[in-house]
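Help: why these numbers?

___
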Amino acid sequence: MGMSWLPALHFIILTMAFAVSLKESNHRYLFLDILRGIAVLWMIPTHVLGILLNTQASENPYYQIFLPTTGYVAVAFIFCAGSAVWFSLERKGEFYRKLSPELLNHLRRTAFILLTAYWFNISTSSWDQLKDTPLAWNRLLAFNVLQVIGFSILLSLLLIQILKSSRILKWVFLGIGLSVYAAAPWVWGMDLSRETIFIKSIFGRPPDTAFPFFPWVGHFFMGAAITGFFAQLKNKIYGMGALLLVSTLAPYLIFYIHDLRFRYPGWQESWWFCNPGNSFLRLSKVTCLFSLLYLLEPLLRKMKSRIGFLTIFSKESLQVYVFHMAIVYGRPFLKGLNSFYAHQLSLAQGLAVTLGLTAFSFCIAWIWHCLKERKPLWAKGILIAYSCIFLTHFFL
């Protein structure tokens, strides 16, 4: 077809347009930006090397050292989203508890995240193909990191409406996080074979859904709760120091309990997927870096010009996420690198692709960030124009 290049053009522009939002808040926390920026930076080699390296490269000792760290990227993203919600509550809580422009703005941003999440799950090039393909519907409704963040924000905003006291709210957030961790093996053990695709997408387990509600939503609410307790401390330095110490020692206790071979009820196939001990292990590693970066924030501010690329990655994390995932995995309807080089590259080749994609992603993020800052109406115009083009192409 003569217009077969249109989906590619639509996608390239939309990956930039998807980052459009109302004016960014001036109240940003550098240590949280750095944490999210590190997660974005680590996300690219996680996906590139994980899908492109051949068997020999995957067994390389250097890659084996890197591999365990990849399990904390998504946790850091989700934790940072929960933390950001609490910081936002601290500033705008009174506005979030009534129908205000601030609440509507937050809802708009959340709807934008969910729209991006489900747009990115589209695996066909037209509506006619989608409606007639059951597997495509499974992929469309599957939970991923953005769905976890989007629905968690909606739930947190609902709780903010119900509970007027932030002191109570942080305990409720903590209770939800712990409950989700505890319930995950039970939920994974349920037979959902007769349930609808939508129910499986929320309460199922891989391969039905990549990031099921249990236990991943728990990381969001633990991030919000931990930030809530931190924000209400009088001496934050000592508080973060204590958190750093606890989160550093916690893995030793977790592995000690694990070595006792205590069998937690519920799904038993692997400790590394939904066991509460594994959830706490991932959480402890992220909170360790969270607290360390806070304690180092005075130094980070002096180095701000040198680490500015991390703040760009943080501010444009949604755009970088969508852009690099499309290059690697080829969604929503383009062929990605995995279609041509899956499990074929050496370690050196994989690193070269990683460095190139990281540099390219940063350049696109920086250009888009500058455009939003200097010409916000142009950015919104791009979003509207190319959304219309995409919808026209998809449905017609």
Notes: Residues 141 and 226 are 30 Å apart (CA to CA). Residues 6-395 form one domain. The chain has one domain: 6-395.
